[in-house]
Amino acid sequence: MEKFDKVHGVAAPMPLINIDTDMIIPKVHLKTIKRSGLGVVLFDEMRYHDHGGENEEFVLNKPAYRNTEILVAGDNFGCGSSREHAPWAIKDFGIKVVISTSFADIFFNNCFKNGILPIVVEEEHHAILMEDAHKGENARMTVHLEDQQITTSDGVVIAFDIDPHRKHCLLNGLDDIGLTMEKDHHIDKFEDHASQARPWV
Amino acid sequence: MSPKTLYDKIWDAHVAHEADDGTCLLYIDRHLVHEVTSPQAFEGLRMAGRKVRAPEKTIAVPDHNVPTTADRVNGIENPESRIQVEALDKNAKDFGIHYYPVHDVRQGIVHIVGPEQGWTLPGMTVVCGDSHTATHGAFGALAHGIGTSEVEHVLATQTLIQKKSKNMKVEITGKLQPGVTAKDITLAVIGETGTAGGTGYVIEYCGEAIRDLSMEGRMTVCNMAIEGGARAGLIAPDETTFEYVKGRPHAPKGAQWEAALDWWKTLYTDDDAHFDKVITLRGEDIAPVVTWGTSPEDVLPITATVPNPEDFEGGKVDAARRSIEYMGLEAGQKLSDVEIDTVFIGSCTNGRIEDLRAAAEILKGKKIKDGMRAMVVPGSGLVRAQAEEEGLAEIFKEAGFEWRLAGCSMCLAMNPDQLQPGERCAATSNRNFEGRQGRGGRTHLLSPAMAAAAAITGRLTDVRELM
Predict the structure, then answer these.
(1) What residues contact residue A65 under an 8 Å CB cut-off, 6+ apart?
(2) ∠B107-B108-B114 over CA atoms, to 5°?
(3) Which residues lie below 8 Å from residue B278, measured CB to CB, with a gap of 6+?
(4) Which pLDDT tens digit goes with each residue over A4-40?
(5) In 3-state terms, what secondary structure has residue B25?
(6) Which residues are CB-contacts of B164 (< 8 A; sequence separation ≥ 6)?
(7) What's the rounded Cα separation, in Å, for the pair B220 and B379?
(8) How sure is the predictor about B169, in pLDDT bands with cuts at 50, 70 and 90?
(9) Cα of B416 vs its chain's centroid, Å
(10) Size of interface A-B (CB pairs under 8 A)
(11) Regarding beta strands A6-14 and A68-73, do their DSSP bridges make them parallel or antiparallel, or are they unpaired?
(12) Among A71, A87, B80, B115, which is most buried by a count of CB atoms within 10 Å?
């Protein structure tokens, strides 16, 4: 996985709450057996008209937000299904950071597996970031993972929390499976013990 | 020893390694696999030259994409769906995992097949690349959905990297009123907590109204724990659970059954164990409910009216305004006046035999409204066979329902069963998101009995009027 360091880029506002995984990527696009190429259908039903053609009103279609790298979204972002196609599409579009007041659990986990940084902030900070995101292309936000800081285009600095293990993995682009396999002997030991204690499993 | 919750006990029994910061390797007893979220995971294994660590604990079945019409014996017409199912056929064979192919009578929705075959047992950890894995919590198993990267992680290592969630108790006291079902309980709870109310928690459902439920009903309740944002839902195993499990193909037998039973009987929350959050509802206060919006938290009793968005607070004002517009409703409109054109009975929420019985009970000797498109999609081939044996299939067919083969079907509309823009469906499934059942389609979630009532009258209907 690519190492995550610092993002300095356009932030787009999506204040709607409960943006679910069907909105992020509808099921018609889940039939792929690949991980790549889904950016073009990110937010498909909001982004394109029923008859095809872009919906100019949709934020990511506006000229100022076409190169969005940071998404500032409403509460409970990513609720719904476990489809990892949602973060795959987000990543493929070019978005590397999603900021909200809360995320659905599975979506949140899935982001880290794909080098996307989901950041939870307090409501008052969220309001500041949302306002900054409304300023468009010339107002660039900076997200610094090592320092755990977001800096708005006006220079307001907001600190954020992140699980240390997850931070380490993102910063170093580490593959979870490889890390776990290094602990193989613990798994062997557990299996030996469990097969005695619960042989019916 | 400090008192533990049911979640604490199952968690503690499955920690294979704990790091200093509390990050754990949680051992997984059962890994369920379906065709949509697994191809990239198997591909990842191949690329890295890895094997499935515990193929004997891994069970696969195609369900999301499969057509539910009789002509599916001729193969799947949609090329992309066909490729996904064929990929699962191949992956199951190549990696040597248990498999129920499309033509097997035991095929069905993964969360119905697992319990039915006795793969799901109390005290286990169960995962699947599907958020409704929460269903298996009905057995007192710690069960939750995972993404495809985690599917690959479990395939390769039989573990997940996890941090423990907080404990939440949802107690439903007393008895349910006639016409009120497990579906109404689970929707009412989400109406109370909101779709983010459970985020960061594992919920244990308890109380007399939960104890009184069958295993089918308990699965319905736990199935939608994810809709409340929780990582998992749990119900402590009891005689109802043991009775259901006993004799199933993969349940323990003989001396192992006795040993298992001894352990399962210790799986309950100790007195004075700590819960970080507690919600209590009175069973008597729960009415038959329907959803009016595009989030499962948009729940109201069928006797209510469509709310006014201005009556909400914060971001919900805009969300409710958008929902009501999408749903083609008006604030103040009586929910029981909302006309529907489609009825879907099925899904991992309500596709089990008891659900079909409840719907058939209302439909017996009646016809669905002229022009109504109504379908029953049993949750598995075995549920279908049993419903045929019990005469339920005849009741559905005589009423005017289509009697389909097993699969996820119109719950998420990945197969040909979809809504057209503007169509309005009374659905026993679990999500009413925009476009969930087809682009522009409108979904009202409700119980199987309420869905049957709506099919007869052509509008959302209080089932108690037909009882």
Answers:
(1) A10, A12, A59, A136, A137
(2) 90
(3) B168, B169, B170, B171
(4) 999 999 999 999 999 999 999 999 999 999 999 999 9
(5) strand
(6) B11, B22, B24
(7) 12
(8) very high
(9) 21
(10) 190
(11) parallel
(12) A87
Q: What is the mean pLDDT of residues B82-105?
A: 98
| pLDDT tens for each residue of B259-302 | 999 999 999 999 999 999 999 999 999 999 999 999 999 999 99
Q: Which residues of A touch B414 (CB under 8 A)?
A: 27-28, 30-31
Of A194, A147, A153, whose CA–CA distance to A70 is shortest?
A: A153
Distance CA B54, CA B39 (A): 18
Shortest CA distance to B129 belongs to which of B52, B36, B43? B36
Question: Quick one: pLDDT band at residue A1, thresholds 50, 70, 90?
Answer: confident
- Cβ–Cβ of B315/A45 closer than 8 Å? no
**Smallest Cα–Cα separation from B336: which of B439, B426, B236, B399?**
B426
Task: Summarize pLDDT for B438-455 with one digit per residue, the tens.
Answer: 999 999 999 999 999 999
CA distance B177 to B286: 8
Chain-centroid distance of CA B348 in Å reads 4
Which tens digit of pLDDT belongs to each residue from B367-404? 999 999 999 999 999 999 999 999 999 999 999 999 99
Query: CA distances (Å), B245 to each of B104, B122, B248, B361, in order?
Result: 22, 9, 6, 26
Q: Which residue has the tokens 């995972």?
A: B146
Task: Output the DSSP codes for B300-352.
Answer: EETTSBPPPGGGS-TTHHHHHHHHHHHHT--TT-BGGG-B-SEEEEEHHHH-S
Q: For the segment B221-268, what is each residue's pLDDT rounded down to a tens digit?
A: 999 999 999 999 999 999 999 999 999 999 999 999 999 999 999 999
Q: Tokens standing for B183?
A: 């579906």
Tokens of B232: 């998992």
pTM of the model: 0.97
Do the Cβ atoms of A1 and A173 come closer than 8 Å? yes
Residue B93, token pair as written in the block: 């064979």
Separation of alpha carbons B460 and B334, rounded Å: 10
Partners of A16 on chain B (C-beta within 8 Å) are 315, 318-319, 322
Instruction: Specify the DSSP class assigned to residue A51.
Output: T
Query: In the block, which residue shows the tokens 């009202």?
Result: B444
Give the residue from B157, B168, B325 with the most A CB atoms within 10 Å of its CB, the best one to mutate: B157
For A74-183, where are the alpha helices, taking DSSP H only? Answer: 85-93, 105-112, 123-133, 164-172, 176-181
- Spell out a b/e string for B119-141, using b for 16 or more CB atoms within 10 Å of the CB, else e: bbbbbbbbbbbbbbbbbbbbbbb
Question: Which residues in chain A are contacts of B415 at CB distance < 8 A?
Answer: none
Q: Chain A: residue nearest B410 by CA? A: A27
Give tens-digit pLDDT for A171-195.
999 989 999 999 999 999 999 999 9
Single-letter amino acid, residue B414: M
Rg from Cα positions in chain A: 19
pLDDT in tens, A78-90: 999 999 999 999 9
Q: What is the dihedral of CA B12, B16, B19, B23, to 10 degrees?
A: -70
CB atoms B229 and A104 under 8 Å: yes
Query: In the prediction, which pLDDT does A46 show?
Result: 96
Token duo for residue A12: 């787009």
